[in-house]
Every structure is written in C-alpha cells, then in structure tokens.
C-alpha cells in the first residue's frame, strides 16, 4: 500500500534540503578544491605556488563557518587571517573577533580596524580569500572621516525601522564607511583577492551583500542623501551623519 505524504512533510523535507545545501560546509565542499597545486574557487583558478602567504579576511553572520570550512579544505596552506562575526567557529590560525549584530558597536569598530590594518599589510605575493555574508554591514563597522559611532548606531537603527529595502539602506551605509562599497578591496591591493560572497538578498547583487566590501559602489553620495531625505526623518540634519552635498 502506498503512502501519500502530506504537504507539510514535503515542505519540511524541502526546507531541510535547502538549509543543508546552503550551509557553508556544503558550499565550500562543492565549490573550493585543490588540484595539483591549483586552488579552484568556483570558476576562478589560482596557483598557490605563486603566493607566499594565504590569508583569510571577512565579515558577516556566517563567515565564521565559512572560514572553518576553508580551513578544513586548505589546512596549513592558510597562514593567518581575521574574521568579524557574531557566530565564531574554530578555523586554525584564522582569528575570530566575536562582535554584535544588527547594530554596530565599539567592539565592531575595533575588530574591523584590526582587519583593515592586516589588509593594508598585504602585498603582490599575498593571496587573500575573503568570505562575505549577510550581516557584514553592521559587523564590519569603520565610520569614515569624523563620523562618530553613536551617529552610525542611530542612523542604522532609524533606517532599519523605516521600512526601506536593504538595498536602499546599504546605499547609505556605503557612503559612511571605510570598508564597504569596494573599500576593502582597495586596501587589499595589490594582493590577489578572491571573494566568496554568500548572498542573502533576492537580487544576489554582490554590491548589496554586506554593502559590498569587495564591489565597486553603484551609488553616489547624492543617492545616499536622497535616501535620508525620504526615509530617515528622525535624523535632525544630514550633517549629523557626515554626509554633505
């Protein structure tokens, strides 16, 4: 006698399969491999022998698990690194900085500044593997210019309450950050940098995930000002968050 499965059972099985396949260990296991001294990350191929150091940098909710999976794959080929996350995991020599989410904090700033310090010390002989996941916009906090952390916290909290879509919120975040909007990639140059971006947005746009620390910004300061004018009525003046026309 055949058994007819309920729609609830089918939905639960589908959910479990989705979570399993999206887990960093599954993704890294199927996308990252070493073949005859060549590191393959998706469609990218890098000669490990051409680099003196392999470092791992990253930020986001899931980057601790991604870093752990990378260490399982590469082992002692990884020399060092630093991860800023709210969910740390053991990853050999890669340092985990456990920080706060969804609002930025002083520990977030300290962890991010340390990451940027490491990034600026790379050279053309360095291979940088950079996992980026959702949550990176808050965890990777590096206020630009003279912007104060308190202003960043108030701005983030207000925008999260405003109902603005995440792509719109991240337009402002990129404008007030020293790490987002491609600025991490700039600091890593001239190292060979390979990004591992785990999308949590429907568009899968890498410039939106964690506000795009490795992606050229597609928006301008004027765009950020327009967002503030439309959504952020609680901020008394645009100057208070360090964005000027």
Structure characterization notes:
The protein is 39% helix and 18% strand. Helix 3 links the parallel strand 4 (53-59) and strand 5. Helix 2 runs parallel beside helix 3. The model is unreliable at 234-238 (pLDDT under 50). The protein has one domain (30-241): Rossmann fold, CATH 3.40.50.10180. The chain has helices at residues 7-22, 24-31, 63-74, 106-120, 136-139, 149-162, 166-175, 183-188, 221-231, and strands at residues 32-35, 38-41, 44-47, 53-59, 80-85, 95-98, 126-133, 192-198. Strands 6-5-4-7-8 form a five-stranded parallel sheet. Pfam families: DUF4147 (PF13660).
Write the layout of secondary structure elements.
Blueprint: H1 7-22, H2 24-31, E1 32-35, E2 38-41, E3 44-47, E4 53-59, H3 63-74, E5 80-85, E6 95-98, H4 106-120, E7 126-133, H5 136-139, H6 149-162, H7 166-175, H8 183-188, E8 192-198, H9 221-231
Parallel strand pairs: 4-5, 4-7, 5-6, 7-8
Antiparallel strand pairs: 1-2, 2-3
Helix pairs in contact: 2-3, 7-9
Domain MOFRL-associated: 12-234
Organism: Halorubrum laminariae
Protein name: Glycerate-2-kinase family protein
